[in-house]
Specification:
Blueprint (H helix, E strand, L loop, with lengths): L5 E5 L4 H13 L5 E6 L6 H14 L3 E4 L9 H8 L11 H15 L4 E4 L18 E4 L9 H7 L5 H8 L10 H11 L8 H11 L1 H12 L23 H11 L10 E5 L2 E5 L14 H10 L1 H9 L13 H4 L2 H20 L5 H5 L13
Parallel strand pairs: 1-2, 1-4, 2-3, 4-5
Antiparallel strand pairs: 6-7
Helix pairs in contact: 1-2, 1-10, 7-8, 8-9, 11-12
Length: about 375
Amino acid sequence: MVKKVRHVLGISGGKDSAALAIYMRQKYPDLDIEYYTCDTGKELDETYALIDNLEGYLGKKIIKLKAAEESHIDPFDHFHKIYGGYLPSTNARWCTKKLKLEPFENFVGNDPVISYVGIRGDEDREGYISKKINIQSIFPFRKNIWSEDVVAKLLNNENLSALLELYDLNSESASKNNKTDRIIEIIGQPVSPRFNIQQKLNLLLELDTIKFNEAVFNWLKTTGYPLSKEASFPLIDNEDVLVRDDIFKLLRDSGVGVPAYYEKVAFEINGQSGEYARSRSGCYFCFFQQKIEWVWLYEQHPERFAQAMAYEKDGYTWNQEETLAELIQPERLKRIKEDYLKKSQRNAQSKSPYLLDSLFETESEGCAACFI
């Protein structure tokens, strides 16, 4: 018996995954999407408020996945204890694996799954791609909705003639024009150090996004990817590209609202005014936070900061350079704000349209990366 393909969308508590849920509900209401979230037990209250608001908008339950459900303590604390007090870090991201990835992969099991990921059209990153062959990622906010593994296999030089057949440009029904000739030319040009896969992909998408998507879908039917089991796929006709401003508009216009930790808060230092906010969802003590975000936590959620500081013992700290106790010393706080203000001013002078994003590392660095 052929298993039904499941369509799933993870809610991290961040703006992008929430906006994607709204977008999919608005544009593809007939898709039976399962919404889920992985609860670490260490989220800010605003994250849980967002999930409640989303459930009201979607009219559908967001499934709560929780690692170590049998434990009497929060999932993070459970594994923190198992790891002997060792805090997660860039080199040992056990929190991502144990609290996010494993609960998700247990949730989908071996079923064929289409996983929708909220990476925006103005981001240059791929996000989480499962190594399980039954899970296929789709990116509705980008011009290229396909994952890099799919693109790499399809545009491999061994597939030049097959790709031309998938486009079906030589059929009698295919219209012959300059664009058709150019597509044929691009398809026939082998990938090389001077013409890489990304360049080839971009050209084909610019020439005809829908035609490219149709070719990919037809190719997928010959593979073991989950979409090979679907007779059709509505996102083939999708030419939308959503950027940061679109995300905030979706959240506000829907009534779901923007999580409060994204709203910039004013501060003053040396007689100058600045603004700070959180750049990511996820645990309040995420080790990927920038120094100014730790300051934000200290000043906006002092009780959470104190809880984060309590984990620092036996030589384990959230930051390699300093402890949280050192970070909140008056002179150090002042220096962090001064440095941040200088960065803000430089970005303002460069007229960056995405000031907040440019001041922080991308959200892909956090454990919410798996489900943004």
